[in-house]
Amino acid sequence: MVSLRAAALRAARGDGGGAVRLPPIELARLAGGGDREAFEELVRGYQRRVYGFAYQYVRDAGEAQDVTQEIFVHLYRNLRRYDAARPFEPWFWRLATNVCLNYVRRRVPEPRELPDSGDAGGDPADLPGESALARALGELDRAYRLPLILHYHLDMSLQQVAQTMGLSVAAVKSRMHRGRAVLRRTLSEEAG
Amino acid sequence: MTQLTCGQARPLLEPYVDGSLDGETAAAVRSHLAGCADCRNQHLEAVSIPARLRALTAPEPPSDLLPSVMAAVARVRRPRFAWGPLILEIGLCALIAWYLSGLAGLSALFSYTSGELSDVVGWGLGTTQLPAAPSLDLLLVLACLALVTVTGYHLALIIGATSEPSGRRAGQG
Fold first, then answer.
1. Of the four listed, A81, A94, A138, A165, which is most buried by Cβ atoms within 10 Å?
2. Which DSSP category does B129 fall into?
3. Are residues B157 and B92 in the same domain?
4. Is the pLDDT of residue A180 over 80?
């Protein structure tokens, strides 16, 4: 038997079969009711941004995949608690941020290998010109790193960052200024 | 206008770049920058950082990410299922509590149980007849057995719900 929700989802996809037309809030509502298909669409729609966010935070492709998976599993488990009367994105990114922070707290620090000059792999942190900033961002205190990633990498407004972090806009601005000042000093010292 | 030292000007560079300073402070920073080459270099760095942060790239998510997430999710039991048996557990506890009816009930049960135990021991030794069990006691024993069973099931559900798969290895397994 075809469920009404699944039928609505298929109808919303249109002829192409791949383009999601239901807004995330609607997908979240359906997925919260147990619709796996809706949840899959939600993951499909967010996986790139979530992976990018995780990568910027942990600076390791394998760990970013772990974090991304953990974020979506937490999302699945918590969707029933989501209040569809509120905007989805701040709620979701707050959850993603908490999962990311918990992951980093749990992980055992491993000694980092120096980048192999013969390896032209896809790690952007190894690209010339970008590596210093990426490295400095990775070493930045997480209180400063998080708002910078949310605002500059995920393109969130200051208001959204504030909602996600549970801070005032003024506090977010202050943290971003301090974070950027630390990055500036680090880059200047490395250049000098 | 206030004359700033380098130590005073540099923490103001980021808010200056964002235009968050009041007019007087911004003018003081501008004036300091006009006469300090080191701080001008720092200012250039401060101006470039937001654009460079935006330009930081991340690799594409791996192609097996979606299947591994869905596989991990398929093994997740939602906590809501773990709360169902709680109602039954509360009901059984209420029944037992009602039966025991406080301290008086408890001491009565103790003397009852010890008397019955001695009867059972005597029956085992062949000295007494085994008395018939009161129907309410049988009900209590059944309720206790049901409570143990339901609690065990409940615990299994809670353990299953909390031991969520994590990491890509879980997704690949």
1. A165
2. P
3. yes
4. yes
B163 touches chain A (CB under 8 A): no
Same domain, yes or no: B18 and B69:
no
The total of structural domains in chain B comes to 2
Question: Domain locations in chain A?
Answer: 1-12+20-108, 124-192
User: Residue A131's pLDDT is what?
Assistant: 76
Which tens digit of pLDDT belongs to each residue from B119-165? Answer: 888 888 888 777 776 677 778 888 888 888 888 887 777 665 554 44
Q: Which domain holds residue B43?
A: 6-55
Two structure tokens written together for A4: 């009404």
Return the closest-CA partner of residue A175 out of A150, A153, A192: A150
**pLDDT category of residue A13 using cuts at 50, 70 and 90:** low
Judge: A184–B80 Cβ closer than 8 Å, yes or no. Answer: no
Cβ contact (<8 Å) for B78 and A77?
Answer: yes
- pLDDT at site B130: 73
Mean pLDDT of chain A: 80
**Does B44 contact A at CB distance below 8 Å?**
no
CATH architecture of the region A124-192? Orthogonal Bundle (1.10)
Nearest to A47 among B50, B65, B164 (CB): B65
Check: CB of residue A156 under 8 Å from CB of residue A56.
no
Topology of A1-12+20-108 in CATH? Rna Polymerase Sigma Factor; Chain: A (1.10.1740)
pLDDT at B26 over 90: yes
* Beta-carbon separation of B61 and A68 below 8 A: yes
Is the model more confident about B1 or about A156?
Answer: A156
Q: Is residue B77 domain-shared with residue B29, that is, in the same domain?
A: no
